[in-house]
Specification:
14 strands; 6-stranded parallel sheet; 6-stranded antiparallel barrel; Rossmann fold; alpha/beta; 2 domains; Elongation Factor Tu (Ef-tu), domain 3
């Protein structure tokens, strides 16, 4: 896995040598398969020209400022976004704080004051639905016109379709919120995951002789409600374990805030993890209220058995593939 690119979180932090850059611009929430197509073209062009593969993204999401009622939950935190972009070769990222002053810039001001003056853009690569400037007055045609004026080339990358569906962050959010993590993974080009610190839970897992890790997810991220077959990774050591994860309010025990509880199918050896990533592989069922704690425990045992069958089958498929390739 690639490292983290050089990250700037304001215009004031920028070095004078940010450019010359090949720059892609957007929210890049999820860094899905469509985003990766653009980013790969950025890195290819940067390699050809000897320029720096770069990205400009925003935080908070622009909708938080211009239309708060439409602001979406996020698929990735800004830090996760940067790591995923680095996997495709991005070397530097400006996470521009999106505020009313930025929202008020017209297209010419945005290009002249930020792209040209601060980011040293030699080439700008964007998706076909790219809009910029106050009230989204600028589109890809306007960006190309301004590029001719300010001395950079513009490339527009067409959207990717999969099974007739345009890959977009909004469609992926819809799938995850509906629990369809397997379909979302196809559009993302990777499994959907949540990352965060391990926090104390209610101790339900310990009564079943299994290790339970409770994840504190970032505020405002998309949550897939229900019970899932997952893989839980220790972000510090790299260890991982097959797991079953419940995302919900624990209605059997009176409900409450949304929690993310992972029951590990293999007990960890050594120091307990402090930061984990939970990767969602397949949905098992919806969360529901059981008549008693004993009924819930019996259901968890059934969930665990189903997950064990899933991982055994996955191991056989991997083994068969290796034999075929040898």
């Amino acid at each position: 896995m690639a490292g983290v690119p050089r990250i700037y979180t304001s215009l004031e932090e920028l070095d004078d040598d940010f450019g010359p850059s090949v720059l892609t611009i957007g929210n890049f929430d999820g860094v899905h398969a469509g985003h990766r197509k653009i980013i790969r073209r950025v890195t290819d062009l940067a390699r050809e020209r000897g320029w720096k593969p770069s990205a400009l993204t925003f935080h908070p999401h622009p909708a938080k400022i211009v239309a708060p009622h439409r602001a979406p939950r996020l698929l990735t935190t800004p830090e996760e976004r940067c790591r995923l972009m680095a996997e495709e070769g991005i070397e530097q990222v400006l996470i521009l704080p999106f505020d009313q002053a930025i929202a008020n810039l017209n297209p010419v001001e945005f290009v002249s004051a930020i792209l040209k003056a601060r980011l040293g853009v030699r080439a700008a690569l964007v998706g076909s639905n790219f809009r910029f400037g106050h009230n989204q007055a600028g589109d890809t045609k306007r960006l190309a016109e301004l590029g001719e004026i300010f001395g950079f080339v513009t490339e527009v990358i067409p959207a990717i379709k999969m099974r007739g569906c345009v890959i977009s962050s909004s469609e992926i959010r819809r799938l995850i919120e509906a629990g369809e993590v397997s379909r979302a993974a196809r559009l993302l080009g990777r499994v959907y995951f949540l990352e965060g610190e391990v926090v104390s839970g209610r101790g339900i897992g310990s009564t079943q002789n299994v290790t339970t890790l409770n994840l504190r997810a970032a505020v405002g991220v998309v949550m897939p409600p229900g019970v899932y077959i997952t893989r839980t990774r220790d972000l510090d050591s790299g260890r991982s374990w097959p797991s079953v994860t419940n995302v919900g309010s624990r209605p059997t025990f009176g409900g409450g805030d949304i929690s993310v509880e992972s029951h590990l199918l293999v007990s960890p050896v050594g120091e307990a993890p402090r930061r984990i990533r939970v990767e969602f592989l397949r949905r098992v069922r919806e969360e529901r209220k059981f008549p008693s704690a004993e009924d819930l425990k019996a259901q968890i045992i059934r969930d665990v058995r189903r997950a064990q069958r899933y991982f055994r089958l996955a191991e056989r498929l991997i083994y068969s593939k290796r034999i075929a390739e040898s």
